[in-house]
Amino acid sequence: MAGTPDATSSSHLERKGTKAGVCTEFTVFAKIKPGHADALRELLAKTTSGSGDTAGNVEAVRQLGILHDARHVIFDNDTRYMFASVFDGTWDNYIDDFGKTVVGKLFDEAFSHTEGFPGVTDPGVKDWFIAHQEPAGIFVSAYPDLTVQQIYKDQRVDEAFQEVLDTPEFRAMLDNPASAELRETPAFQKLLEEASA
Fold it and tell me: What's the superkingdom here (predicted)?
């Protein structure tokens, strides 16, 4: 299922990004400053290798609570850089929220190696992103109706349910003849099938 472009207008330039349900994709292409590709590559490697603050980045992403995923790519013989992500909510809030976390620091460091980037906290940063953003021609999500917060909640519910399933009390309840009617319902059978999958 292809998404539809987000054509929200404001007093600034048009916000871009293709939507799939509650998710919006964000893809930015920038020119790397001459001689900066190795420093950018080193920064990205440090961030993902564990020698950087990866725990802090993961925690910041959880605090943002709207970011599904993100990718950083150096390409075209070290002359271009791509950042791509998928998020919930509005484009403006997404950009604003990045400046409030350690992720904003990574943005600043990474994009400082590209031409013309004003900095995450600069008032012109949104216009810069818009000028360098290209919407996806096709954007598909495996879970278009689930926000990051709903996915986190589903994980917590699943973990709690799995703990209940592992208790002797639950097994005793299932073995109790008084529970036979509940055990035979299609909804309960489906629940048990999903739990064991």
Answer: Bacteria
How far is the C-alpha of 122 from the C-alpha of 126, rounded, in Å? 9
Q: Return d(Cα 43, Cα 107) in angstroms, integer.
A: 11
Residues 119 and 153 in one domain: no
pTM of the predicted protein model: 0.78
- Mean pLDDT computed over 132-138: 95
Q: Are residues 171 and 124 in the same domain?
A: no
DSSP run (H or E) holding 73? strand 67-75
Burial class (CB in 10 A: 0-12, 13-18, 19+), 111: buried
Same-domain check for residues 24 and 118 = yes
Supply the range of the domain harboring residue 158: 148-196
Tokens 């190795």 locate to 38
Side chain identity at residue 55, one-letter code: A
Out of 53-67, 125-139, 171-185, pick the least confident: 53-67
